[in-house]
Amino acid sequence: MTNMIYADHAATTPMDPDAYEAMLPYLRERFANPSNQYSISRNPRKALSTARELIAECINASADEIYFTSGGTEADNWAIKGVALKYCCGKHIITSCFEHHAVLNSCAFLEELGFRTTYLPVRKSGHIEVPLFKESILPQTILVSIMMANNEIGTVQDIKSLAEIAHRNSTLFHCDAVQAVGHIPVDVKELNIDLLSASAHKFNGPKGVGFLYIKRGTELTNLLSGGKQENHCRAGTENVAGIVGMAVALKKNVVDINKNSDHLNNLSKTFMAVISSANIDYIVNGDNDRLPGFINISIRNQDGEALMHRLDLNDIIVSTGSACTSGLITTSHVIASIGISPEYAQGTIRITFGKDNSIADAIRVAEVIISMVSV
Ligand code: PLP
Q: Residue 240: which of 12, 11, 28 has the closest Cα?
């Protein structure tokens, strides 16, 4: 483990030590159910409200607009299905074709119930086509769901402008900000969005916990039925330790956001300087408006999956944008959506550095890739 270079932080991040420490008492002595009325429940209940306030502050929301969930997938499902089932008088949803499957499959589920979805195309730059977006809004459109930062290529959308267009047409706006929260500034008031999903394990918090921001006054149908937790909106005993860890991790990342992003941008620059100095035929996917430390490249005539495994054998952990199934190389829906030609697409790898990676790591990852793809 000691020599391993982990460069797949878009998949998940290591736990922040302070977040981990903050969780421990809630797994041990402060185990009481926060919903009970006896004295030992007071501390876990207080911990939930402190975490809710901390998280709200980090995205410029109010505490009563933060609803804890089991992660990004649940938050996305709740936002999309919750709005659709509340406003089923209008049956049209707009999203983009390169969203995470938590969004795409929620829309597919609703299509089976009779809803219609428009999947907006994306430009090669990794941005959605705004004129097509405007044209696709119908009188029956109830919701627009566009991600803040793409999980494969890292490109960041102009969410403020997109939300403004949706609102001008009396449509709610949901943003899957799972990759963005804790990495770039997110201010829900400034962006003027109605719903926002986030997940703790993407910002050095624990897995299996996240939150949905629901702007005050926005009405959704509950996804989970049961007890009265989360202001009667999301049933189920709260993951107290996870929520406490999430709040500590987010606060820390937000306080250090500029420092971390400067460091991550340096790692990306270093990596790209080494890669570009070699004689390799590659393209960088998505334009420069990307999450810090996020690189997705396609190398001509390579097999991305094989490359990922060979890097793994060299203690370097990265991800790929292609997979070999039954002898056929298939590319991910994201890489396909930005129109990369097959001889490049099949050699796609995603390198996502984290705050604990060093310049030496960035150089080594690039050098090992070069050694594997040079002829
Ligand atoms: N949305 C995006 C953009 C993601 O990258 C992910 C996770 O990879 C999710 C949603 C799902 O989040 P979780 O793993 O917390 O369910």
A: 28
Q: Which of 78, 51, 369 is nearest to 221 (CA)?
A: 78
174 lines ligand 1 (CB under 6 A): no
What one-character DSSP code corresponds to residue 122? B
List, by residue number, the catalytic residues.
Answer: 324
pLDDT in tens, the chain (375 residues): 568 999 999 999 999 999 999 999 999 999 999 999 999 999 999 999 999 999 999 999 999 999 999 999 999 999 999 999 998 777 999 999 999 999 999 999 999 999 999 999 999 999 999 999 999 999 999 999 999 999 999 999 999 999 999 999 999 999 999 999 999 999 999 999 999 999 999 999 999 999 999 999 999 999 999 999 999 999 999 999 999 999 999 999 999 999 999 999 999 999 999 999 999 999 999 998 999 999 999 999 999 999 999 999 999 999 997 666 666 678 889 998 898 999 999 999 999 999 999 999 999 999 999 999 986
Look at residues 353, 138, 176, 355 and name the one whose alpha carbon lies nearest to residue 364.
353
Q: Is 205 in the pocket of ligand 1 (CB under 6 A)?
A: no
C-alpha distances in angstroms, 138 versus 72, 133, 144? Answer: 28, 10, 11
Contacts 24+ apart (CB under 8 A), 134-139: 134/165, 136/94, 137/94, 137/165, 137/166, 137/169, 137/171, 138/92, 139/90
- Number of residues assigned to the chain: 375
Please identify, by atom number, the ligand 1 atom nearest to the C-alpha of residue 199: 15
CA distance linking residue 230 with residue 45, whole number of Å: 12
* Residue 100, ligand 1, Cβ within 6 A: yes
Query: DSSP labels for 301-322?
Result: T--HHHHHHHHHHTTEE-EESE
CA dihedral angle for residue 151, residue 194, residue 165, residue 130, rounded to 10 degrees: 10
Residue nearest atom 13 in ligand 1 by C-alpha distance:
72
Name 29's Cβ contacts closer than 8 Å, sequence gap at least 6: none
d(CA 64, CA 62): 5
